[in-house]
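Entry 14. Structure prediction run on the chain below.
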Amino acid sequence: MTYSGVLGAFPYAVRESDSWLFRSYALVSAVVGGGLALLFALGLVVLVARTAALAGGSLTLSRAFYVVVGLLLVLPVVAPTLLVARRHRREGSTPRYDAALALAGYLLVVSLYVALVITVPPTQQTTPSGALAPAVAALYALAPAAAAGPPLVGVAAIYAAHRLLR
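Output returned:
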């Protein structure tokens, strides 16, 4: 049995995969991807409401840019699940491929969290404590522009896992 559409790919991939690691990632990617999509959809509603009275091309461009940024965050989170579903549907997959994409997907989710920590404004930063205090302090010290690095590493890991285990 195959699937139709993006939403159907999630249960299909879970049913077809023999990797428990991948099955757990499929659930995580559905929750995180859905949460990000909802967050950006609600943010877009707020953006449109705030700029509805104003006219001009730059406002339309900012709305479009907002949508593009949302897609650039959601698509990599769900990409491993979609790739595994596609591979199972077309040629069959191996537990090794599924597990490698799950690991790369988990790396991406963690890298998104690291990017969020890097971009915390100084006024909202708390004094880190515990075992991860030095790492959090080092992330706070980075420039906000460095936040693009960790997610790019996560996306590269997904791409590499897909290409190498083809």
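Residues 4 and 12 are 9 Å apart (CA to CA).
Filed with the rest of this week's runs.
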